[in-house]
Structure formats: C-alpha cells, structure tokens
Design brief:
Oligomer: single chain
Strand order of the largest sheet: 1-2
CATH architecture: Up-down Bundle
CATH topology: Growth Hormone, Chain: A
Length: about 450
C-alpha cells in the first residue's frame, strides 16, 4: 500500500457525515423501546421489535459492500450509496414517530395493532436506509487511508460517532426542557420524541451533503496504485469469487474478532431494549404495565441522558485507548475495555431510587456512573475490530468483506432479540434490570474471547 498520509482535515471530512448518521442511529436505539411500548408492546415481546434492525443490516450491508466495490462513477465509488441512504432515512424519520397519530383500524394481526405494524415497517426502512448511509464511511476509510493512519481515521470516526450519539440521545430531554410535552394520550407517541426525529433528519442530510461535497474518492487507477495492486488482474480474479469463496479465504482475524463481536453486540442489544423499563421501575416506581404513565415516559427521556453519558464515557475512554494499546497491545486494551463495561452493566442492577435537584426529579445519580463505565466497552467496539480486520484484508474486496463482517454485528443482535423474552421470564424472574446483568456476563465472555484473536497470519 502506498505510504501517502492524509491531513487531519481530510480524515475529518471523510467521516463527518457519520455524525449525522449516528444521530439517526442514536434516536432509533434510545427511543424504539419507548415507541413500541407506547404503541402497546408487552415487555416480554419487546425484544422481538429489535430483530428487524440487525436483520436488515445483515442483508443490506454485504450487498452495499459488494455493489459499491464495482461502482466507479464520476460521483464516486461509495458516495452514491451514502446519498441514497440519507434521503430515504430522512423521509422515514418524519413518518415513524407519527405511527400513533394515523387513523388506523383497531383490529390486530398476529397480536400487533395496525399502528405497531406501521411502526415496524417504518423501523425496517429506517434501519435499512441508515445501513446504506453508514457502511460507505467505513469503506471509504478502508479505500483511502493507509495502514499507518487507519487507527487514527477510525478514532476520528469513533469520536464523531459518539458526538452524534450525544446529540441524538439528548434531543428528547432537551425538547422536554424547552416546554414540549413528554406525555400524550395512550397509544400516541409524545411530541418530544417527534421533534427529536425531525431535528435529527435535518442534521443528517446537512452532514451527508458536507461529506459528499468535500470528499473526492479515488478512481480505479489511483485506487490500484494506492493499494499496490494490479487493477485489471485483481478485478478479473476477484469477480469470479462469490461470498462463500470470500468467507473461505477470510483471514483468521475476521473470524476471531467476529466471536468477540457476538458477545459484545448481544450485550448492547439488551441495554437498548431494557434500559427504559429498568430506569422506569427502579428509579421512578413504574408499575411495569401502563406505558402512557408519566413515570415510564419520564424515564424515556432519561434513557437518552444515560446513553449520552455512555457516549461521553466512550469519548473519554477513546482518548485513553491508544495508551492502553501501547501498554497492553490491541488485544489487552480490547479486553480491559470490555471488563470495565461489564462492571458498568452489572452495577445498574443495584441502582434504585431518585433525587430531587432544583425542583426536578432525577434518577439516582449512580446510574450515570454505571453508564459512564459502559462507554469504555463501546469505545473499544467502535475502534479496534475494524482496525484489526481492515489491516488483515488484502485485495479489491474491502467493501464486500466489511459488509460481510457486519454480520458479526447483526447476528448476535438477532439471537439476543429472539432469546430476550425467555431470558426475562425464566432467568431474570421478569426483572428488566436482570437483563443488564446478563449483558455484563456477555461482555466478560467477550473479554475472554479477545485472547483468541489472531491479528497476523502465520
């Protein structure tokens, strides 16, 4: 690979649109449980609504990787997909929070009312479009950044990702603070959630347009020279291979990092699914039944704050991560980060009650310390897997491989979502906080699996 370094400004421009994409993703992850519980979902079936996002990612991202590997246009190689995904995401973000407002018939199909079906299909399109817009950013770093700077490039992407998360997570409570209602009639999603999605849609399209305008992708000849490959030979050879052949030839890092990913992403699936119920029950005395209750909706706003604290913790830990890598290597830093995150998850189980500050009722402040610790695991998950895997991948199928690698993010979430209701009922005795203890155990298993990673081939 040609040893051409890029300026900090170029690395920043390459990932700036990720800030807007992550706002949309943060709004989805922090509010989906609140939205579907408001529309009438039971806690034992709540995790099923989380199957669609990773399922769509598993289908869409490998296809985006495969097709964009072969897309060479005047607009770029990855950028056309980025723009299409953003436009679809904006449209869906305007529709999803209004699922409870449309005059649907009250009949139910497979136990879901019409509003829930509308929300489910909106969620499917939202996550599909977010995946279409998100994946090109990872691919462009693989395309345009040399191995020496890849760690820095993904760290910048991680920082922008966390900054976008902070904004997205805080939107609901910000709109509540300026006077927009955080409660509504039964079955209707409150206005603070609606305005959060509207604002997120506006920022998303502006950020994507900025990256689209400021980044010039490499053409085929430049790409081949940059990566030190024969463009014609590589293209002819790689075109013959299907995804089975590519998986068979994948470096061992692809599979061993994938095992760690399984435990990590299953853990975070339970955080996204059960944080709202846990905070509502443990800190605000919610009865666990009536989602229109003020205790549940108030907790919904603080879920965003808790996730924001997690994002801040991730930013802090990301700054410390290079030093950990220097001391312990990539694998040691990865494992330590996951252990710290596991401690954060388990500690949430013991946090109860609330405090009153300046006339406002807040959750027990130790709750936010727990989520601060969880940020350590998130920082490692965002930076280290892609650094290890992209350094191990050679040849012209970078995008296809990264799309396939995304399955190590999607499959564990699907498995976790399918098992969530049973674990809640039988392993956790219907205690939603117990599901966060399960998440902590999963991160500990991930920390053990880190030491199976082979960064270099024999």
């Amino acid at each position: 690979m040609e040893n051409t370094n890029r300026s900090l400004g170029q690395l920043f421009n390459l990932s700036f649109g990720f800030f807007g994409v992550q706002i949309a993703y943060a709004l989805q992850s922090a509010n989906i449980s609140r939205i579907f519980a408001t529309l009438g979902a039971d806690p034992h079936t709540l995790s099923f609504f989380w199957i669609l996002p990773p399922l769509m990612g598993m289908i869409v991202q490998p296809l985006i990787g495969k097709f964009s590997d072969k897309t060479w246009t005047r607009l770029g190689r990855r950028k056309p997909y980025l723009l299409v995904g953003a436009l679809i995401a904006v449209a869906v973000m305007l529709l999803l929070p209004n699922a409870g407002n449309f005059s649907f018939a009250q009949s139910a199909f497979l136990g879901l009312n019409a509003a829930m079906w509308f929300g489910l299909f909106s969620l499917m399109f939202l996550d599909t479009s977010i995946n279409i817009a998100m994946q090109p950013f990872k691919m462009m770093v693989g395309d345009m950044v040399n191995e020496e700077q890849k760690g820095l490039a993904y760290s910048i992407q991680s920082a922008l990702c966390n900054a976008g998360s902070v904004v997205g997570y805080l939107f609901p409570i910000f709109f509540t603070w300026i006077g927009i209602a955080n409660t509504a009639d039964p079955g209707v999603i409150p206005d603070d959630v609606k305005w959060s999605f509207y604002a997120g849609a506006a920022i998303l399209i502006l950020c994507l347009l900025y990256t689209f305008a400021t980044v010039k992708e490499l053409n085929p000849e430049e790409y081949a020279k940059f990566h030190g490959i024969d463009a014609k030979k590589s293209e002819d050879k790689e075109e013959e291979k299907g995804f089975i052949a590519l998986l068979r030839e994948a470096p061992s890092a692809f599979w061993t990092v994938g095992l760690v990913q399984f435990f990590c992403w299953a853990a975070f699936m339970y955080m996204w699914t059960y944080s709202n119920g846990t905070i509502a029950i443990n800190c605000f005395g919610w009865d666990g039944i009536n989602a229109a209750d003020a205790a549940f909706q108030t907790a919904g706003g603080f879920v965003g704050v808790a996730f924001c604290v997690q994002a801040v913790g991730s930013l802090i830990w990301a700054a410390f991560l290079p030093k950990l890598e220097e001391w312990f290597g990539n694998k040691g830093a990865y494992a330590v980060s996951l252990v710290v995150g596991a401690a954060g998850f388990v500690s949430i189980f013991f946090v109860e009650g609330n405090v009153e500050i300046a006339g406002k009722l807040l959750p027990n402040l130790w709750l936010f310390v727990s989520y601060l610790f969880i940020g350590a695991a998130w920082a490692a998950m965002l930076a280290l897997p892609f650094t290890i895997v992209t350094n191990a991948i050679k040849g012209g199928n970078m995008g296809y491989y990264l799309g396939l690698f995304n399955c190590t993010i999607c499959v564990p979430q699907i498995v976790a979502a399918l098992c969530g209701g049973l674990l809640l009922k039988y392993a956790c005795a219907n205690e939603q906080a117990g599901m966060l203890v399960v998440a902590g155990v999963l991160l500990l298993l991930g920390a053990v699996a880190v030491f199976l990673i082979r960064e270099k081939e024999d």
